[in-house]
Amino acid sequence: MADGPFLRALFRVHLWLSARLMPALVGRRDFEGVLKLAPLDLPTPYRDLPWTYIVQCVNRTVRRPWFMRDRRCLREGLLGFRFLRMAGLDPDLHFGVDAKSMHEPRLSAHCWVCLDGKPVVSDSQPGMVEIYRHPSSAKAPAT
Predict the structure, then answer these.
(1) Nearest-CA neighbor of 94 among 47, 128, 54?
(2) Are 122 and 77 contacting, i.e. CB atoms less than 8 angstroms apart?
(3) Residue 34 CA to its chain's centroid (Å)
(4) Helix (H) or strand (E) holding 77
């Protein structure tokens, strides 16, 4: 299916529904459970959409969260990773923690998505130490 109004409309509806379901899907899952929401093997119905369009739509869709306000980057990251994969791309989903929060009652964490090593959905924040990278299917996990 070539990039056109129908494909873009289908994509936007799919993204909107996925964004609304994401808080319920994430719920109180542990880290491994959350990673299952970012599968590596997905169909590629949005192969003809430009990655810039996908990222722009993800950012617009999640800009005013009703739920997951304290985990906004997780919602953005999971959606960005998932829909970039469905466009046939190989994004990496990065997770980091703020080193200063290691001794706090609540750990401060962040996630972001990179394409070809460059951040496209969110970005690493100052003081963040990367603890995990969820790779594309052809890449090995970072250590």
Answers:
(1) 128
(2) yes
(3) 11
(4) helix 72-85
Q: What are the pLDDT digits (tens) for 1-11?
A: 678 899 999 99
What is the rounded distance in angstroms from the CA atom of residue 58 to the CA atom of residue 27? Answer: 20
- Please identify which residue in the block is written with the tokens 């739509």: 57
The pLDDT of residue 78 is 94
Q: In the block, which residue shows the tokens 């542990």?
A: 30
Mean pLDDT (the chain) is 85
What local confidence, expressed as pLDDT, does residue 1 receive? 64
| DSSP code of residue 44 | -
Share of the chain residues as helix, strand and coil, in percent rounded to the nearest 5: 40, 15, 40
Per domain, the residue ranges of the chain are 5-134
